[in-house]
Every structure is written in structure tokens, then in C-alpha cells.
């Protein structure tokens, strides 16, 4: 939530085999694990940079920014904007001060129904945390306006666990351990009934991906069988698990006092292992971390394993769909002409996206085999 966008260029990936047990299904007789790809680590950044600079309020974007600041001042008059942390077509993040404290204002720019609903869900999550403290650190709520989709929270110190959605290389073991610990604590939390809902309709999402051609007929049948078995398990003891819903390393800050989770717009009840499936997906260059995540997800038993695999198929397919769109867009736009010449050995963003997409397809094929093996054991 606090990180600015960074360069997406990277040196070529080299193929390397994944270590034994690095797949999503702990099969001691696995014949040939899928290949992974490595990248060179990008420079790490810090989560809290010194406040400096001034806001550019000129032009059409300036007018949009003025409207955002006005909406912040309606609910937090003492907010003094200092700089824009991040701006996208959907929202803008503005860092500033409220008295002697540093705060971050998040304002929605795209008020289409889907984004409005998600933004209000995030506000509801922060309000819930005021009365019911989660077992991990979260930014303190300062002010919120669900009607105009404006949120002001404290700015937490610390560097982000990763600057990008899919880290360039395996993060330090200590960072992965801290992130996994925070996710495990939030997954073990049981907030009061009715405080959060279930953001993901599994049956509808699986059917939708099948309609789009992202799932085969066999995928559809296998996943429905696993869901059917999980429904029976849920009837006996309840399979719901509270999850962050977007447990990317870029949504985890690592100050010395302990991990902080931000961006709660997808928080709610999922099948067990959704957050772990998200972390497994984005740690493609960290086979040891993947092995640890698989062990954590499947330790409670066969039902937890099946839930993790269903989550993994959905998360991987979502990422594939996202990056296929990005690759197609890059191909339409073509290579940049003239002017700036890329540094020696660097890849274009489109080429890096293609390599990442290939790795995601390999991961999905491996998860598909694990799903079929799980169905065969039922």
C-alpha cells in the first residue's frame, strides 16, 4: 500500500530445477518437479522514506488531486498533504501529517461499483480492528468516509518485504519467516461472527474460469469433487479460515517491532490456506520457502491439503489471466523506439512478463497434477 512502483526490467532468467518437495503436494514419489526460473535481486527499498517535495496540482491530474485532498480535509481537517506515494487509475495515496504524526490518505478515483465496494470493505475492516484487535500489527484508523471512499490511517515505519508483486529473487529467510509468522497468526484468529463475510464464491469462480477456457473439463470436475468433500468437512467442524485475502510480500512491512499488514480490502473468510497459496504463488524463486508453505498448509490433514490446492489453482489462474493481459498489451504497444537504450543484459518489461507467465503456467501444471493426485486419494 505504501510502496511506489519500481522498474520491471531484469536480467535473463536461467532455468533451474525445483528442489524435492517444493511443489504444492508433498509426494515423496514425485518423478519430475516443474522447473523454476531465477532472476537477479533488485535493490531493496525502505517502507518509510523522509517526507519531502511538494505536490504538483497543475493540469488534469492536479485537479483530480485537489478533489482528493478536499475529500480528505472534510473528514480530517488537520491533514497536511506532503507528497504523493502512489497514483493509479483506481486510487491515489497521499502521505502527510496530522499534528505531530505521519499519516497516509487513500482516495478512490475510479468510483465504479466493484472498486467502491472493495474500498468500503477495507474501511469496514479498519473500523472492525478498532474494537477487535487482530493478532498482527495494522495501521491505526484516523478517519474514514465510506460514502466518498476516503481513508486516513497512520503511516507505519519499516521496509516492505518486497517491492514487487512477484519478487525478483528469494527474499532473505528472516523476511520470509516473519511474513509467514504474521500470516499464520492472522489465519488462526477468529473474529466475532458477522464482522467479516466471505469475499470469494468458490463455485462461481471455478465455473467462471471454466467458461473462459482457463480450466479444462477435468479441472472443473476435479475441483468440484474437492469442494464437495470440503463441504462435508465444513458441516462436521467448520472449514472457514480468516485470511488477509491479498497476502503479497508487498503488503507486509517489516519494522524492527514486528510485521505490519496493510491493504485489507479482501479480508474475510476463505477456505483454509488462501493466504498461504498467495505467498506460494509469488515466491517462485524460493523453493525452500515454498516447501515450508506447503508443509504448513497441509499439516492439519487431508481436508486442509485439498483446500490449499483449490486456493492454489484459483490464485495461479488469476495471476495467469492478469499477466496474459499484460503481455498482450505489451505486444500491441511494441518495443519503445529510439531514445533510451536499455542497459546491457536487461530485458524489456514485456519480455520479463512473458518469462513470468511461463513460470506461472509451469506452476499451474504442477498444481493441476497435485489436484488430480488428491482426487485419486479420496
Keywords:
378 residues; alpha+beta; Phosphorylase Kinase, domain 1; Aminoglycoside 3'-phosphotransferase, Chain: A, domain 2; five-stranded antiparallel sheet; three-stranded antiparallel sheet; 9 helices; 12 strands; 15% strand; globular; disordered N terminus
Provide a concise account of the structure shown.
Helix content is 43%, strand content 15%. It has 378 residues and is an alpha+beta fold. It has two domains: 97 residues, 2-Layer Sandwich (Phosphorylase Kinase, domain 1), CATH 3.30.200; 217 residues, Aminoglycoside 3'-phosphotransferase, Chain: A, domain 2, CATH 3.90.1200.
Strand content: 5-15%
- Architecture (CATH level 2) name of the largest domain: Alpha-Beta Complex
Proportion of residues in helical segments: 40-55%
Query: In total, how many domains does the architecture comprise?
Result: 2
Q: Name the strands of the widest sheet in spatial order.
A: 3-4-5-7-6
Rg is 21 Å
CATH class of the largest domain: Alpha Beta
The CATH topology assignment of the largest domain is: Aminoglycoside 3'-phosphotransferase, Chain: A, domain 2
Q: Summarize model confidence as the mean pLDDT.
A: 85
> In this structure, how is the largest beta sheet organized?
5 strands, antiparallel
Instruction: Outline the low-pLDDT stretches.
Output: 1-17, 26-48, 337-341
Please give the number of β-strands.
12
Q: What is the string of helix and strand elements?
A: EEHEEEHEEEHHHEEEEHHHH
Cα separation of the termini:
41 Å
Amino acid at each position: 500500500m505504501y510502496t511506489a512502483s519500481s522498474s520491471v526490467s531484469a536480467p535473463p532468467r536461467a532455468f533451474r530445477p525445483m528442489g524435492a518437495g517444493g511443489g504444492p503436494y508433498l509426494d515423496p514419489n514425485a518423478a519430475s518437479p516443474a522447473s523454476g526460473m531465477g532472476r537477479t535481486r533488485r535493490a531493496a527499498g525502505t517502507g518509510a522514506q523522509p517526507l519531502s517535495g511538494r505536490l504538483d496540482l497543475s493540469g488534469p491530474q492536479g485537479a483530480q488531486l485537489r478533489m482528493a485532498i478536499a475529500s480528505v480535509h472534510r473528514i480530517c481537517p488537520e491533514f497536511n498533504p506532503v507528497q504523493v506515494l502512489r497514483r493509479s487509475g483506481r486510487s491515489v495515496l497521499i502521505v502527510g501529517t496530522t499534528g505531530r504524526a505521519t499519516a497516509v490518505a487513500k482516495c478512490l478515483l475510479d468510483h465504479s461499483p466493484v472498486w467502491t465496494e472493495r474500498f468500503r470493505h477495507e474501511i469496514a475492516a479498519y473500523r472492525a480492528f478498532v474494537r477487535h484487535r487482530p493478532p498482527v500489527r495494522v495501521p491505526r484508523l484516523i478517519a474514514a468516509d465510506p460514502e466518498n471512499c476516503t481513508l486516513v490511517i497512520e503511516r507505519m515505519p519499516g521496509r516492505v518485504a518486497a517491492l514487487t508483486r512477484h519478487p525478483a529473487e528469494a527474499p532473505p529467510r528472516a523476511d520470509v519467516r516473519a511474513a509467514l509468522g504474521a500470516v499464520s497468526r492472522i489465519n488462526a484468529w477468529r473474529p466475532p461472527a458477522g464482522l467479516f463475510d466471505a469475499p470469494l464464491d468458490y463455485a462461481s469462480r471455478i465455473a467462471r474460469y471454466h467458461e473462459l477456457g482457463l480450466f479444462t473439463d477435468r479441472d472443473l470436475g476435479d475441483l468440484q469433487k474437492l469442494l464437495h468433500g470440503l463441504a462435508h468437512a465444513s458441516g462436521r467442524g467448520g472449514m472457514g479460515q480468516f485470511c488477509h485475502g491479498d497476502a503479497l510480500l508487498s503488503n507486509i512491512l517489516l519494522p524492527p517491532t514486528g510485521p505490519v499488514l496493510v491493504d485489507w480490502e479482501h479480508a474475510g473468510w476463505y477456505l483454509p490456506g488462501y493466504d498461504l497459496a498467495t505467498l506460494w504463488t509469488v515466491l517462485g524463486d524460493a523453493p525452500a520457502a515454498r516447501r515450508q508453505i506447503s508443509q504448513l498448509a497441509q499439516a492439519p490433514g487431508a481436508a486442509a491439503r485439498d483446500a490449499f490446492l483449490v486456493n492454489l489453482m484459483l490464485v495461479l489462474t488469476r495471476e495467469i489471466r492478469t499477466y496474459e493481459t499484460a503481455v498482450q498489451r505489451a505486444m500491441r504497444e511494441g518495443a519503445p523506439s529510439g531514445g533510451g537504450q536499455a542497459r546491457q543484459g536487461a530485458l524489456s518489461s514485456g519480455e520479463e512478463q512473458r518469462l513470468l507467465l511461463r513460470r506461472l503456467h509451469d506452476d499451474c501444471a504442477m498444481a493441476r497434477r497435485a489436484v488430480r493426485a488428491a482426487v485419486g486419494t479420496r
